[in-house]
Amino acid sequence: MSQSRWQVPWESRSSDGEVTLPYDGNPAGQITYTADGRMSAQLMQVGRELPDAAEATGAEMREAILGGFFSYYGDYSLDMEAGVVTHHVEGALLPSWVGSDRPRSFTFDGPDRLILSTEPDPARGGGAIGTLVWERVSGC
User: In the chain, which end has fewer C-beta atoms inside a 10 angstrom radius, N or C?
Assistant: First the structure.
């Protein structure tokens, strides 16, 4: 994957096949891979609104700001034979991700669609698998 930038529709599929659409089914974001082995990903819910600052608690403001956004960055490595890209997380909105490896199986659906799937996550809906279908941004 040389320098490329991708945008996303996103779904999460539980082990029993139930599909949920994070961020109310209206995500936006991008993932970037560079030729020198760096990556970054940002995802957000479109149409987020802040509560009235004069009336909201600090917790409500934090949830409104952080509950609809996620980001991380680091190096990546490819195992082309296995079809796995591993994101080696250096910085992330979630502190528990920092220093972790995040393997993603990948396939291409034509030259402009990259499909990334997470490993099953027992913390999300009984082993849910997140699938992100990234579409290449023209000119990248």
Answer: C
